[in-house]
Amino acid sequence: MSAQKPFEDYWDSPVYDMRDIDEDGAPDSPGSILYHVPTRTGQKDNYNLSVGFSATWSRPQDKKLQQLCKDAAQANIALMQQQNANKRLDFEIARLKNCGELLQKGIRFAPGTKYAQICADVQVVGKNFITPHVHSIPSK
């Protein structure tokens, strides 16, 4: 909403004496003011009040491309998860191999120490793990 307030002030415009009474071709009293004429300025005060509200609604034109983008993102996430699982498996196999080889040689961290936990779940058959078995005891 905008409005104008009529601020039409006046100012006194001087009227200079341009008379040539003796008719010599030059004004007799140049620069002297005869009287003032009230002159309207035409100025106005402008007021504006804006209360705004804006809303945007967007709808994709091609839903197939949007679905392709979602499918590609999902496939990329699945690929990254599989790569992460592969790296974790490689790490665990390397840990199992190294811990097992060291245990077979009788090398290990002292029990209860910080790094003993690294190989705590590794078992070497015949070294630190004996498979369940049964012995027969001959009778006489």
User: Helix tally?
Assistant: 1
Q: Estimate the mean pLDDT confidence.
A: 87
Structural class by sheet pairing and helices: alpha+beta
Sheet with the most strands? Answer: 2 strands, antiparallel
- According to DSSP, the number of beta strands is 4
Distance between the termini: 118 Å
Sketch the topology as an H/E string, one letter per element.
EEEEH
Described by the principal axes of the CA atoms, the overall outline is rod-shaped
What is the C-alpha radius of gyration, as a whole number of Å?
Answer: 51 Å
Share of residues in helices: 25-40%
Q: Estimate what percentage of residues fall within beta strands.
A: 15-25%
Strand order, main sheet: write it out. Answer: 1-4
Low-confidence stretches: none
Verbal overview:
With 140 residues, this protein is an alpha+beta fold. Among the domains are: 2-48, no CATH class; 63-109. Helices cover 30% and strands 16% of the residues. It is built from one helix and four strands; from the N terminus they run ββββα. The chain has one helix at residues 63-104, and strands spanning 2-5, 10-16, 33-40, 45-48. Strands 1-4 form a two-stranded antiparallel ribbon. Strands 2-3 form a two-stranded antiparallel sheet. The longest helix has 42 residues, at 63-104.
